[in-house]
Amino acid sequence: MKSDIEISRDAKLMPVTELADQLGLQTEHVEPYGHYKAKISLAAGKDLAHKPDGRMVLVTATTPTPFGEGKTVNTIGITMGLNKIGRNAISCIRQPSMGPVFGIKGGAAGGGYAQVVPMEDFNLHLTGDIHAITSAHNLGSAALDTRVFHEEREGYEAFEQRTGLKALRIDPARIVWRRVVDHNDRALRQITVGQKTCGASTNENGIPRPEGFDITVASELMAILALATSLQDMRARFGKVIMAYNHDGEPVTAEDLQVAGAMAAIMKEAIKPTLMQNLEGGACFVHAGPFANIAHGNSSIVADQLALKLADYVVTEAGFGSDMGLEKYCNIKVRAGGKSPDVVALVCSLRGLKSHSGDFQVVAGRKLDRGMIDPNLPALEKGISNLRFHINNVKKYGLPCVVAINRFPEDTLDELGWLLEKAKELGADGAAISEGFAHGGEGCMAVANEIERVCNAQKPYFQYLYNCEDTITTKLNDLVVKGYGGSKVVISEQAKAQIAELEAKGYDHLPVCMAKTQLSISHDPNLKGEPTGFEVPVREVRLSAGAGFVYALCGSVMTMPGLGSLPGYMQIDIDEDGNIINLS
Amino acid sequence: MKSDIEISRDAKLMPVTELADQLGLQTEHVEPYGHYKAKISLAAGKDLAHKPDGRMVLVTATTPTPFGEGKTVNTIGITMGLNKIGRNAISCIRQPSMGPVFGIKGGAAGGGYAQVVPMEDFNLHLTGDIHAITSAHNLGSAALDTRVFHEEREGYEAFEQRTGLKALRIDPARIVWRRVVDHNDRALRQITVGQKTCGASTNENGIPRPEGFDITVASELMAILALATSLQDMRARFGKVIMAYNHDGEPVTAEDLQVAGAMAAIMKEAIKPTLMQNLEGGACFVHAGPFANIAHGNSSIVADQLALKLADYVVTEAGFGSDMGLEKYCNIKVRAGGKSPDVVALVCSLRGLKSHSGDFQVVAGRKLDRGMIDPNLPALEKGISNLRFHINNVKKYGLPCVVAINRFPEDTLDELGWLLEKAKELGADGAAISEGFAHGGEGCMAVANEIERVCNAQKPYFQYLYNCEDTITTKLNDLVVKGYGGSKVVISEQAKAQIAELEAKGYDHLPVCMAKTQLSISHDPNLKGEPTGFEVPVREVRLSAGAGFVYALCGSVMTMPGLGSLPGYMQIDIDEDGNIINLS
């Protein structure tokens, strides 16, 4: 089989203007970026307001190995499968960070014959939204450090008299807005800024203080982009972003720094979703890509809204397993204005479930154990508990569940048949084998048919997992007990104090976002299958006031990845014809 | 008169596809970015190779005040004026950094009725080239720090055995590749990276070392983008970029780090110039924007090449006064493959020349002294020496010189008439009053006519100022004595050692790029008019091996600006209709 980039390059693409035309978008709302990408103006949605919404298919997965279960392949594949059976379907997916593209993971455009194309454009720059976030975020940082510098150097009173501004009296020790860069760059995790230039007599560079960079997709602005329902809503949310606290412990926001408007100006184009196509000419909106731990891990509400007006089915992907992305979709994105799902496609694989036997070590960058690839019913039987959890988890939200078994070349029909039966036995409303990677839309027709059958047969009775009006502690405990099947949440002294402060400041009625590992249903990556009885420790609680949620850290969450000693970029180059080679 | 952004927004724009069509570009070579910007494939130039080149008009200026003399207004205005008199003309200008846009200077799209539109697009993001540079540059930094980290932690031998790579043995104390960000952010000037995460037992973040960020336009990659003649040439130059030295003092390049290919992949689209339009529907290529002190301050060779095939006249702008941008255009850009100018338009103003009397203090952000605005012949007579220098300077390169007097509303006909006469007396081949700001193309017809008259009458006999085969010291001395009219160059002990090292490594036959103030012909901003007898101190000499020049620092050059206490971003916002307000 050809490589992903070869398949992508060999594809015969339709001009994006033609694709937009087919969708019924008006020319004035379509802003091409090159021949195969276009930003779609949010005004297009207003023109379509009278049309009914299509059905929302949420693609989630069992607890993934570090290689992923193939959610993007299935999101694209199911869309193509729905198209094949004569339905109008559009995918809505996240834009990947360039960090992993040059690190170890490679691109995120799906794979094989279920890809978004051109994959080079998808994986690099796209239409510049992540660059806009980097720029808007770091303008906030520059504004913050500048204000501290001028106020501290001059003295608050003199500063106020000269500038006519009110002194913000920012406590340099309580700056919470780290800078961002869209690379894997461990050297920037922990730094000191504002140091004196070597040889200078005075320090004109600010107040030296500890600082660090996160990868851009971890920026709160990314979470806001994904949750905002309009440009004006995004602007308002930027204003609420807390960047620091003053000497009285009061929050200092981007609005206080008078930088929220400029940040919104920088992101005026980024709020428009990008239209691309899959290998079979179907439409795909690519928009926003927040982390699925410290943020909610789902693509944007505005792209969904647009797609729902244009299609019978919108197929969207939620990051990691159903305990992560799906949970956050339901409890955070729906609350912010996202459409509740009509059906869930739960992606799993034989090898993935075998890993939940606990018999194997799976490490990114190393080859899989043959025991996961070859027939191994005992391992499958041991690991099936993980599927059971995720089927039940989908049901908790009142949603119909179709299991999509992502087939790999070595998979045997025996084991696939066993798993199909087992899925139904465990309560799935439908199940089918999915072969999008090898066969594109045709390989996903069975799943598409199951999705339609289940949608016609069952109405969802969507419900949230927890009540937003409850205390933060209650909500966290609900998440652990009702959400993960653990025994209880254990909140550290530090986190207790933080919760008390949040409640005192009126931030207690926000949804909670658990930042835990994606490699287990619990907080502990070593607990495979369907662990029970575990207590989830919450070490720290932080606020994303602009995005509108409180997030709880269960352990240390890596917001700035590093690069290995043989990173992906070493192979990437351009050939004589100017084509990119070895991007995967 | 309306504000710049109001004029820009009220303009009736032509779709960029129509503009490209009018220029004779084939659809396949035009990649629209929205409705009013398009990247033009370099392949377009190959299709036009049989066509003769148009004439190259280089726009320079007298020694500017911090407010600038109106070079961009005149570059756009002259292009519109040439169009008005029936000639086919295209502007080639630089893309501005977003730093100054949010700082104090505002945008750089020209002004009044001589603007490139839409000015919001021009000033923010454009087609993402600067973002691509930031990303490619910082990938290089991440690659560098990662390599140091892995080699140092593991030991060179163990590293080689495990990875199969040759250890680069980088000296952490001799890393010369600073990171970049496209903001004015003084807190990042001097920092420490690779510090241990608070609370961690070991340092997983690298080797702590001093580091700093420059503004992106100061990146060597920006200079390379402007000087490369093709994608392949850019790729090759990236490979030569020196990022550090090893423990033997040998250079470690981006090629050694195996990151140059990925950097080129990131900048594969950035090498394509962006086509925009002026307020009268004429074409403008916007591409690259290197600093005019540590780099050569001119827009790209590839944009010029394309424009020369499409137009009778290409009007391009060189940064700062003729001692800076024009000198570097002639000695660096022409040597790298740029076309030598056919004629020079030397922009000056009454107020600018009055400032060269030395009687006034001009400070950015403060109002001009009335003595410069109101009639003041004595000041004008004192300051005229600066014009004399620049006319003679243009002549040194064998180029015809047309003086364009940029008229301001308060300027009197008496003084303008006096200056017109004086310009001719001082040796200008032509002179005219330019009113592009107030009247667009019509206001620049007189200058356009003078340019054509002079071009028809005089053939340039272009010559370089210095011989590239000479030693670095000789070239620097030539620049000071023949170029600036100073008495000699004075090279510090440090710079002498650096020159010796460059010569030993074979980098002595490159052009030299003087990084000095733009506010005086000399190195001292206080020396107004036409100073003589001054000695130019060279403190330090550095190498841009990829861009292909050696640059000499006369003093401290600011490669990372700061923000004042009332920066421009405080006023910028979006209005109810989603338009950007208060961008200037």
TrEMBL record, chains A, B:
Q: Which UniProt keywords apply?
A: ATP-binding, Ligase, Nucleotide-binding, One-carbon metabolism
UniProt-recorded name of the protein = Formate--tetrahydrofolate ligase
Its lineage reads:
Bacteria, Pseudomonadati, Pseudomonadota, Gammaproteobacteria, Oceanospirillales
Family matches, as Pfam families: FTHFS
Q: Which organism is it from?
A: Parendozoicomonas haliclonae
Give the residues the record marks as binding ATP. Answer: T65, P66, F67, G68, E69, G70, K71, T72
Q: Where is the signal peptide?
A: none
Q: Which SUPFAM superfamilies match?
A: P-loop containing nucleoside triphosphate hydrolases
Report if keyword Ligase is assigned.
yes
HAMAP family the record matches: FTHFS
Q: Name one GO molecular function term.
A: formate-tetrahydrofolate ligase activity
Q: Which reaction does it catalyse?
A: (6S)-5,6,7,8-tetrahydrofolate + formate + ATP = (6R)-10-formyltetrahydrofolate + ADP + phosphate
